[in-house]
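Lecture notes, continued. The same structure-token format from the folding unit now serves as the input rather than the output. Read the line below as a description of shape only.
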């Protein structure tokens, strides 16, 4: 059988490029099919936590735009407070630069790329996969679908179940030069304004990325929230918004149950697999982790160490989904008592330290439950009750919004 590559990867975002990099490093022949030309704009806050950086096997500091030491928190634009750290808490980048940087590393390691190849459909037989693109067709032994939130691969391979749709709006916003300088180390974060909703300002080299996100069924309230967020920002900080350079909405797919992440010879990773944090909307960490797990499963399969790709679904469920399901439970608690948690972060040194440890990957959501020791069942009950209250609040908000 002749193939175009041992592994084809659809999509050159963080999931695709990290999978390609790892496979190429092991001498596997890899071809990436990417629908866009690179570098390409991607709507994203592009906040990089330390836990992301630990997962990338090379230095990405050349594409940092800013280093964040301070968070200014508000809860529905009220009870504003700030917290700082002497060391950077996160780093901000722009996704056109970051993604092109990761892709360059994959290409240098030996991966090939074809731009302008939009994957439309996937057909599998017992020994290979045909990948149909808008321009042609390719054949491969294995296919990794890393083609983002609206993944054609996941749809075609029927790997889209158990996904709750989230949505975010974000714009690149030009502000006065003094604001760029004053707030170059500061993130603004508003939460608790509506169930599951939040807004952020991430400072970039010469502008701000400003966005809001939440459950997709509340989407009609997101633009009003966005406008209120900008008004709050101008009032609280004196920042002058000069120009909205782009304004886009984008889905944030959230997997809410353990699932199958492979089907015969096809695997899905990153947003294509719905691996985003339901609490924060963060997905780069999960894209990179799942991309690496996908590459490991493909490598073992090609070497004959594994007879199927089952190990991939198992690893994603154990290593990533356990954590994401815990984040979902914490989201329900947060939605039930948002102000209490906001004030807890303000008043408790321990809570602030824990926040920093989560960003650094030194603490995990699952540690919250473990902290209850033999009383863990109480945590389970609290989460169930919170889910019930949170659902009621969401329905109520859907009807009357910010009135
Ligand atoms: C507004 C917003 C803000 C966010 N902020 C953050 C943040 O601050 N930190 C964080 O960690 N996460 C954030 N996220 C989530 C993050 O953007 C995603 O989780 C992450 O990009 C997922 O990476 P990926 O490689 O799976 O997919 P993507 O980054 O979406 O990459 C997919 C790639 O596939 C290509 N593609 C798509 N369809 C096809 C096709 N049919 N054929 C071929 N190629 C295709 C695309 O062009 C793209 O290059 C944010 C998301 C949004 C919407």
């Amino acid at each position: 059988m002749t193939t175009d590559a041992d592994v084809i990867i659809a999509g050159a975002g963080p999931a695709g490029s990290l999978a390609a990099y790892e496979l190429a490093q092991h001498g596997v022949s890899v071809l990436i099919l990417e629908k866009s030309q690179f570098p390409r704009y991607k709507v994203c806050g592009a906040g990089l936590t330390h836990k992301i950086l630990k997962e990338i096997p090379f230095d990405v500091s050349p594409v940092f735009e800013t280093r964040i030491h301070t968070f200014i928190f508000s809860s529905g634009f009220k009870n504003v407070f700030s917290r700082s750290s002497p060391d950077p808490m996160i780093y901000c980048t722009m996704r056109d630069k970051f993604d092109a940087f990761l892709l360059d590393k994959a290409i240098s390691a030996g991966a090939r790329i074809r731009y302008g190849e939009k994957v439309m459909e996937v057909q599998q037989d017992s020994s290979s996969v045909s990948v149909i693109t808008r321009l042609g067709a390719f054949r491969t032994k294995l296919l990794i679908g890393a083609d983002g939130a609206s993944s054609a691969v996941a749809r075609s391979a029927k790997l889209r179940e158990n996904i709750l749709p989230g949505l975010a709006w974000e714009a690149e916003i030009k502000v006065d030069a003094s604001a760029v300088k004053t707030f170059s180390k500061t993130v603004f974060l508003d939460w608790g304004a509506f169930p599951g909703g939040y807004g952020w300002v991430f400072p970039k080299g010469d502008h701000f990325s400003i966005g809001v996100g939440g459950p997709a069924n509340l989407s009609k309230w997101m633009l009003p929230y966005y406008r209120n967020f900008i008004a709050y920002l101008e009032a609280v900080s004196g920042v002058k918004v000069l120009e909205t350079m782009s304004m886009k909405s984008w889905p944030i797919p959230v997997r809410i149950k353990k699932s199958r992440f492979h089907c015969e010879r096809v695997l899905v990773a990153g947003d294509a697999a719905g691996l985003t944090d339901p609490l924060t909307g963060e997905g780069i960490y999960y894209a990179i982790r799942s991309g690496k797990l996908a590459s490991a499963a493909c490598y073992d399969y090609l070497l004959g160490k594994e007879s199927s790709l089952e190990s991939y679904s198992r690893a994603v469920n154990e290593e990533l989904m356990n954590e994401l399901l815990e984040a979902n439970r914490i989201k329900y608690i947060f939605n039930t008592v948002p102000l209490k948690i906001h004030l807890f972060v303000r008043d408790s040194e321990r809570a602030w330290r824990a926040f920093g440890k989560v960003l650094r990957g030194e603490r995990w959501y699952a540690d919250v439950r473990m902290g209850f020791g033999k009383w863990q069942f109480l945590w389970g009950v609290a989460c169930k009750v919170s889910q019930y209250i949170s659902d009621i609040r969401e329905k109520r908000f859907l009807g009357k919004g910010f009135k």
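Point for the exam: The two ends are 64 Å apart (CA to CA).
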